[in-house]
Structures are given as structure tokens and as C-alpha cells.
Write a structure and sequence with these properties.
With 89 residues, the chain is an alpha+beta fold. Helix content is 38%, strand content 21%. Strand 1 and strand 2 (38-44) form a beta hairpin. The protein is globular.
Length: 89
């Protein structure tokens, strides 16, 4: 991930950070799409890890989004993060 201008640096960043936070890193899935609005990263984690990803008052999710905005601006791209609510079984 040290490669400057790496096209998937945003996706790899989210995947790396989230896997360090959650209890079930094997359940972390980050999908990347590009459309007219920019880059959309979709994050899926185990339902038991949702609280860790959102954080107290949404602070962890907000911090991730801020850092992604910085990574995106460095690469002249708008990067958004969507956190998918796990479905109840």
C-alpha cells in the first residue's frame, strides 16, 4: 500500500483498518465501484462487529470517512463509504 497513486489504495486502506478493529476479520468485505459521483466503497462486517465500526456516537465511521476523503483528494477522486447493515438471520 506504499505505492503512491495505487488505484485501489482506498479499498486496501479500509480493509486493513477495519480488520484491525473487528473480532472477525475474516468476515470483512470491501467492494469498490466507480460511477459519476466518484468511488463508492461498500463495507460489510459481521453483525457483532457493527458497533466497533460505527463507534461511540459514530466517531469511528466518521474518522474512516474523513481519512478516505483525504486519500481521495490526493488522487483527485471523491471517495464515499457505505456501511451495510448486516441482515438478521
Amino acid at each position: 500500500m506504499t505505492d503512491e497513486g495505487h488505484p485501489y489504495a482506498d479499498q486496501e486502506f479500509v480493509e486493513f483498518v477495519v480488520k484491525q478493529i473487528v473480532e472477525k476479520p475474516e468476515e470483512v468485505v470491501v467492494e469498490r465501484e466507480i460511477d459519476e459521483m466518484g468511488v463508492l466503497l461498500t463495507l460489510k462486517v459481521d453483525k457483532e462487529d457493527m458497533g466497533k465500526i460505527i463507534g461511540k456516537s459514530g466517531q469511528t465511521a466518521k474518522a474512516l470517512r474523513i481519512l478516505l476523503r483525504i486519500i481521495g483528494s490526493k488522487n483527485n477522486a471523491r471517495v464515499n463509504l457505505k456501511i451495510v447493515e448486516p441482515e438478521e438471520e
